[in-house]
Amino acid sequence: AVSKDSIKAYFNNHGNITLGWCAEVPDNYEFTGLPTIGYIQLALIPVLDVVMTARKSYGISSNLKILAYDCNGSLIHEWQSSEQQSGRTSGTPSIENVLSSGADEVVISYRYPNRTEIFNAQSALPQKVFNYGAKTVTPALADVNNDNHPDILAPDINNGILHAYDAYYDNPIWDTDPIQGY
Could you tell me which InterPro entries the record lists for this protein (predicted)? Predict the structure, then answer.
């Protein structure tokens, strides 16, 4: 369960629902969107982690926080967007091993300014920053060029172009023509 102030994980033990853990958003930020689950840590036994985005109150310029919690609710990673923004984020990050680093990367998209960024557990800084993004669209991650690596699909809110990018080989795949009315 997510509110702007906290995230709570509940466990279902044969029909008995109990609170597993609760984490509050740090530093006067508020959670946005929905949580995403993925394997962002390199581990002998993969364990699912929960990732959320957080921002200052709407209209206050600040870097987004991308927060990762382990299965016990402990904060294990905290990244910041490369640019300050004052609007909405995509709200929901995407998680997949787009760089083939061994662990899943976190991909977010936001506006004001338009950006799509890739983060991983090995670095505090974004691994890749694209100068396009949107505030209400979660980046899609799928193998669109049949190379057995997930690719990133994200729109440019300014011109309505959908970009497909191969993060593994660090190459653009294709761009659509502008989508009318976008």
Answer: Integrin_alpha_N
